[in-house]
Amino acid sequence: MPTRRTPTGAAVLQPEVTNAITEAVLDELAAVGYGRLAMEAVAKRAGVGKSALYRRWPSKDAMISAVVAEFSVSRATAPDTGSLRGDLIELQQAVHDRLTHPRFSRILPDLIAEGARNPGPAEEIRSAIGGPRREVARRLFDRALGRGELPAGTDVELALDLLAGPSYWRLVVRREPPGPEFVEHVVDHVLRALGAREVPTGQ
């Protein structure tokens, strides 16, 4: 079988350049915010020409959406500790780490504010970030339902909101340090509210 060659004139996207641009986008978002971010500033910070950005994304909005989604969703894992409580503690700790990340803790509030001013791109970002991360958490609740840890008919959509709400409110809105036991306290309150029960191993 003949070796497939890149067509003459086709752009070859170098991973190291993409990584440099990604870092530059995140740094610019943290420094100046969504509204004031400029493609020229990103290119300068990354040490590339502006054309390198447009070879990867068709617009500023598409670039920001892709970069922020990759930064957030790539950190979303579905733990499997054998219990819903253990899974949710690991999941919540990951959320806590993301919301207190030096850059993301500055980027997220700005993205939320931008959503009120510019609903179109903001909705794209919410879908790119919130959808996949919510799906990860949903799998934990569905698995717990299958193990009998949650009552049949549990409102999983409400459960997802109950789980995410306290961390967002404390860290993003109030910007208060949550304390070392905050994650476990949130999880235990949510489990009590949902009527969760422990299932013996092997049941």
Would you kindly provide a written description of the structure presented here, covering whatever features stand out?
The protein has 203 residues and is an all-alpha fold. The protein is 67% helix and 0% strand. Helix 1 (15-32) packs across helix 6 (104-117), helix 5 (84-99) packs across helix 9 and helix 6 (104-117) packs across helix 7 (119-147). The longest helix has 29 residues, at 119-147. The chain is elongated and about 60 Å long. The termini are far apart. Residues 1-10 have low confidence and may be disordered.
What keyword list fits this structure?
67% helix; 203 residues; 9 helices; mainly alpha
What's the mean pLDDT score? Answer: 86
Largest sheet: none
Task: State the helicity in percent bands.
Answer: 55-70%
N-C termini distance? 54 Å
The tally of beta strands, per DSSP, is 0
Described by its quaternary structure, the protein is single chain
Count of alpha/pi helices: 9
What is the CA-atom radius of gyration, in angstroms? Answer: 21 Å
Note the overall shape: elongated
Global structural class: mainly alpha
Note poorly predicted spans. 1-10
- List the helices and strands in order: HHHHHHHHH
Strand content: under 5%
